[in-house]
Amino acid sequence: MTSGAPLTTSRLIDPRFSLATALASQPGVYALLLGSGVSTSAGVPTGWGVVENLVRRIAAAGDSPLAADEDWEAWWQTQMSGSELGYSQLLADIASTPAARRALLAGFFEPTSEDLETNSKSPSAAHKAIATLVAHGIIRVIVTTNFDRLLEHALAAEGVMPQVISTNSDVLGMEPLQHARATIIKVNGDYASLDQRNTVEELDSYLPETTALLRRVFDEYGLVVSGWSADWDAALVSAVKASANRRYPLYWTARSHVASGPAAEIVARTGVYVVEDASAEVFFPDLVDRVKAVQGLLEPPPSRAVKLARLRRALPDPVRHLDVRSIFEAELRTLKTWSQQRPESPPENTNNDNALDQLVQVHTQFETLIELFATGILLDRDHQHDDLWVWV
Length: 392
Fold this sequence. Notes:
Helices cover about 50% and strands about 10% of the residues. With about 400 residues, it is of the alpha/beta class. It has a seven-stranded parallel beta sheet, sandwiched between helices. Helix 1 packs across helix 14, helix 7 crosses helix 8 and helix 7 packs parallel to helix 14. The chain starts with 14 loop residues before the first helix and ends with a helix.
């Protein structure tokens, strides 16, 4: 596990420890609220990054391109007579209709061939860690202000296809949260949708159905906030604040100190846990490690008979290929950990007797894998898993 962030509360227990314990013992009870800070390390710009890019485009279109190190904010104030510079207003001025905004924003979220070569605009360590939590049933509901689809891509890699709610009509036809394996609520829409929410007016309120859904999530679930400044999303801030009598705690993680603004008002409330100097790239992989550590104490390792029973149930089902593979992946991880803890060379006093003991230990450790492997091949009569047997 990685080193943690300093605490801003006087609690004796580090909030990361209490959160990992809660997630492990109450899977599915906590939801995530993710902002643009979760996607910045993947090459997707924040709202202010989009503003800088658009200002530089305007300058270039006006025959006065800015140098890479030139102060673009100062240029704006000079050229635009000191008018206020903001994401919402700038976007509204450049692209006045939803269709125009969709076309304008697509370039910030869709990877180019160069992006694909450099692995930019692809799921980051934070997205992958969140997908791991979802795949294991720890997290089932995610609220996000982001337009990108990096989280959906990370979940697909884990074999999870979430229901995605990005419009008010999606809310009306959605599967109940408690019945869905995973739900992503994109409160500001999807970059490819005509229903994006960008301007101050659009972010100021939601339709009643969306508001009711958010208030239900924030009331019924614990909440982990990451990468969200709360500066622009007035309606979302209102929904969070409306859940005054929370059933479960709220954990707020931030890249820096939470000093002012709506975020400070939220974290100042009683019962909120704060972890500062915690970027999503560090926080979520670390959280996965901690949850796994706690689960190792709560859940005794399954016996060989249980593993074999799981394999026999999953093997004939054509839609459970990933479940079959996960059985072997877990067994191989266990063996890898065991082998890494063994000394690299035998003791100097090795003789025939203790050498035989070492061989017996190795055989004992591998017995379960060997039996799973043999059983799998025996029952795989249609050769659906030949690639898995070769890999193992």
